[in-house]
Amino acid sequence: MKKHPYLQYLFLIVLSTLFISCKETTNYQYIVNLPQHFQGAPVVFMLHGYGSSAENFKADTHFEQEANARGYAVIYLTSTDAGWSAGAGADKNDDVKAICALAKSIQKEFHFDKKRMYVAGFSNGGFMTHRLVVEGKGTFAGGICVAGDMSKTVWKSRKSKTKVSFFQISGEKDDAVPKISNGTAKYAYDPAIEDVMEYYATSNRLNFDAPEVQKIGYGSTLTKYTGDKSKKQVWHLLVKDGHHAWPSVTFNNIETNNLILDFLDTQK
């Protein structure tokens, strides 16, 4: 069916403006969700948590619904193992190389905007997101991590600067994300999330000492680091009383999907 690579997509887009397709390439299964006008569109690659899958992550977040409506393509990936090789242990697979290669291949196939390719992940997928933006050689313009951190291995081997935009969402009571604010970083193996945010902000020469801080939801704190001479932005949402979870309207009064898209819209 290589003769007409877009025929099936265009036909279904006319019917519903949304098409979901399962494929398998380089041992990854993935789900494609397209906006009505997908050529030249930005794209977000979604990485599930440990033991999950593309199908489950899609069912849990429904990120594609808001994203497609706002002009973003969304690709959910399934790991070849239970989790991603995010740097926390021995690497069974070279996920950095493979995911970057797959992202570039998909971008060329659908003619997405290669300057606006992003990666987002939850938990283990969030750890992998940090690794991809640090070690992915500029494949991704930015990352979104929910309930994850940068592993110590990636932190210790990082370059002096990583010039990407980044949005970190951390639960106040999530022990998987070490924090200086509550003292958990003192005894943690991985770096404090505040130090990771400072790294991204200073890499882009953003105003780390004078951020914009606002309260959202049920007392959660959203901190935004911006700069006068840079389009890059670094955001950190600390979810009040939040645990290891994707924040929701029900429990946190936070529309996480739209907040992520608001962040990505700053990069236009």
Describe this structure in words.
The chain has helices at residues 7-16, 54-61, 63-69, 95-110, 124-135, 152-157, 193-203, 249-252, 256-265, and strands at 20-25, 28-33, 43-47, 73-78, 117-122, 142-146, 165-171, 212-216, 220-227, 230-239. It has 268 residues and is of the alpha/beta class. It has a single domain (7-265), classed as Alpha/Beta hydrolase fold, catalytic domain (Rossmann fold, 3-Layer(aba) Sandwich), CATH 3.40.50.
Strand and helix layout:
Layout: H1 7-16, E1 20-25, E2 28-33, E3 43-47, H2 54-61, H3 63-69, E4 73-78, H4 95-110, E5 117-122, H5 124-135, E6 142-146, H6 152-157, E7 165-171, H7 193-203, E8 212-216, E9 220-227, E10 230-239, H8 249-252, H9 256-265
Parallel strand pairs: 3-4, 3-5, 5-6, 6-7, 7-10
Antiparallel strand pairs: 1-2, 2-4, 8-9, 9-10
